[in-house]
Write a structure and sequence with these properties.
With 188 residues, this protein is mostly helical. The protein folds into two domains: 1-108; 109-188, no CATH class. The chain has seven helices and no strands. It is globular, with a radius of gyration of 20 Å.
């Protein structure tokens, strides 16, 4: 289990190395920038992996919060090196909100709104940037009110996340469960 969490450490070291590398070719510079940007967010996602392992009983609270804290710290360091460290507070706030929700989940009544948000949480995470920013940019450049642009982008992002949940996430989960049922031994 512990070796699994060496992956974000490897990505951190790789990103630190790549930030010092100065390739000559423009295409290689672009590949380097995309690699670093994606690796940063994979490091950040390991905070969620640690919380998932805590929830499933694979990690103690102390280990999960230590790993999650280290992942968030490494992520913010990488953002800072990349020149956008000022965005780190919003990710820190998101992790804090998640920790509070995780700690207080027993006191929040379950209901259709929370269930819906839970169902679309990962698709929303995956999809919100593209339709959200594109729609806001189009609306703002057309002279729309910023509040209206944000509201429209939010609604469209939620709709896209729900469609992704219904037409991709649920069928792929069901396919995976069916495939797993047909195997008599554990994978690997």
């Amino acid at each position: 289990m512990g070796r699994f969490f060496l992956a974000p450490l490897f990505l951190l070291v790789a990103c630190l190395y790549l930030t010092r590398w100065r390739p000559d070719a423009a295409i290689v510079q672009h590949i380097k920038a995309v690699t670093i940007a994606n690796a940063e967010f994979i490091v950040f996602m390991f905070a969620g992996v640690a919380f998932n392992f805590l929830h499933r009983g694979f990690l103690s609270a102390k280990k999960a919060f230590s790993i999650a804290g280290a992942a968030v710290f490494a992520f913010i360091c990488l953002l800072t090196i990349g020149g956008i460290g000022s965005l780190g507070w919003s990710y820190g706030a998101a992790v804090l909100a998640f920790c509070l929700a995780m700690a207080w989940h027993r006191w929040v009544p379950d209901g259709p709104v929370w269930r819906f948000l839970s169902d679309i949480s990962y698709p929303l995470y995956v999809i919100h940037v593209l339709p959200g920013y594109v729609l806001m940019d189009l609306m703002l450049s057309s002279g729309a009110n910023p509040s209206l642009s944000i509201a429209a982008a939010t609604i469209v992002s939620f709709l896209c996340a729900w469609l992704l949940h219904v037409f991709v996430e649920l069928p792929s989960h069901n396919l995976g469960k069916n495939l797993a049922r047909n195997h008599s031994t554990a994978p690997g």
